[in-house]
Amino acid sequence: MDRRIKFRHLEAFVAIARAKRLNRAAEQLNLTQSAISKTLKDLEDILGVTLILRGRAGVSLTDQGEIFLQYAEQSTGALRQGLNSIAKLDAGGAATLRVGVLPSIAASVVPLATERFRAQSPDTELSIQEGAHATLTDRLRAGELDLVVGRLGRPDTMVSLSFSQLYSETVVVVVAPDHPLIHATSLDQLSETLVIYPPKDAAVRPLLARAMIAAGLPLFQNRIESVSAAFGRAMALGPLRAAWFISRGVVAEELAQGTLIALPIDLRSTEGPVGIMARSEERPSAVARLFRQALIEVSAARPAG
Question: Taking every annotated instance into account, which residue ranges of this chain make up the domain HTH lysR-type (predicted)?
């Protein structure tokens, strides 16, 4: 390895690649745009290749940049994790575990797995952080999270990450029991109603897009995009009586109690794997392995669907 390559070079490159804009990356690192641009140029000069192309619409990675990004993210993430572990040890603190959770999983297997984990490792400082798929996987690669639990994402969001499947799950459309479209059997019947729909960075969005295309339908015009389970419930049960597109696991309890009803619309094409994401080629800590096992055991006892 060229000894001229420093952590600041890798940190700047990763920030630019994620933010897609120099000014946004500079703000994140508390640098001026000229300073971060010079740092990137220094790295490219050392490597002898162009990593990032600049344009009016932002920046894009070259083929060399795509390859280098995988290893730069792994390197910066591993270093941050190591520094955090040393600081924690020096402070005499307990082990820590930071788990990112997609909203579709936060209300289902994770609470049960957390109960099991806490019984086995009560002194571990456990942090559960909810967010969108792209955000959580970026933070996982950066070493800010130890694990992420959720749906398998697009290939470009899974670079340098491993995925261990727990189970498969489908998307459903749920409404209040008194909704006028309670017996709707096709997506086109929802064209005039308000829908709560997953945003672009949600893992299920491409699956729903394919279902819409297969049905010959455009994207719903009367929609609000959100990954918030609390917001979705409020909108579905509130006066606007929205139709809510959501992973079945999020609303399993409401469906069982009858407070929400799944429309008889065939969305089997949205079935996808739910699992555990981690940084590839990195040995998980003892507490991470314990939490993994808790997730596996809880998922094995989970009803199918």
Answer: 5-62
- Whether 1 maps to a domain, the answer reads no
> Would the pLDDT of 92 be above 60?
no
Q: Widest CA span of the chain, in angstroms?
A: 67
Percent of the chain residues topping a pLDDT of 90: 59
61-68: long-range contacts at Cβ-Cβ below 8 A with a sequence spacing of 24 or more? Answer: 61/17, 65/13, 65/17, 68/13
Task: Indicate whether 193 and 66 sit together in one domain.
Answer: no
Banded pLDDT at 91 (limits 50, 70, 90): low
Q: Mark whether 14 and 156 lie in a shared domain.
A: no
Clarify whether residues 32 and 162 are in a common domain.
no
Q: 14: how many CB neighbours lie within 10 A of its CB?
A: 22
d(CA 291, CA 114): 8
Token readout for 201 is: 């960075």
pLDDT surpassing 80 at residue 80 = no
Confidence tier at 1 by pLDDT (50, 70, 90):
low
Question: For the purposes of burial, counting CB atoms within 10 Å of the CB of 93, is it exposed (0-12), middle (13-18) or buried (19 or more)?
Answer: exposed
> Total domain count for the chain?
3
> What is the residue range of 231's domain?
171-270
CATH of the domain at 282: 3.40.190.10
Looking at the structure, tell me whether residues 137 and 283 fall in a common domain: yes
